[in-house]
Specification:
It is a single chain. The protein is 90% helix and 0% strand. By secondary structure, it is mainly alpha-helical.
């Protein structure tokens, strides 16, 4: 009768077969460990890329907000300057028109004076 503590007796052929099975199992275990290690390194870049993408989006949003905050007073000043420029441009055109009209009057008077002096 055998008890749980009684060693199992195998024939030499069975022992040889068990050694081969043990070798195959150990070989598979090593290969599986290598594959799992490779998978770990393959998922790491994809995780890093996803994390990088999230960070880039957050950084871009923060930079856009900072840039907009920085540009807002500049845009306001530019709009003010453009309005002022348009005003002075209009004033200058009016002054040129007035000067042109005054020049025409002066030319007419000069023409009248020249005609009067020739007579």
């Amino acid at each position: 009768m055998t008890t749980p503590n009684t060693p199992i007796q195998f024939s030499e052929d069975d022992r040889q077969l068990l050694r081969q099975v043990l070798g195959i199992v150990q070989n598979l275990d090593v290969r599986l460990s290598i594959v799992e290690e490779d998978k770990k390194y393959q998922t790491t870049p994809s995780l890093l890329n996803a994390f990088r993408h999230v960070l880039e989006e957050q950084l871009e949003a923060q930079l856009e907000a900072q840039l907009e905050a920085h540009l807002k007073p500049i845009k306001e000043q530019l709009n003010k300057l453009e309005k002022e420029f348009r005003h002075y441009k209009t004033q200058t055109r009016l002054e040129i028109a007035n000067l042109s009209a005054d020049l025409s009057i002066v030319e007419e008077r000069v023409g009248v004076l020249e005609t009067t002096n020739k007579s």
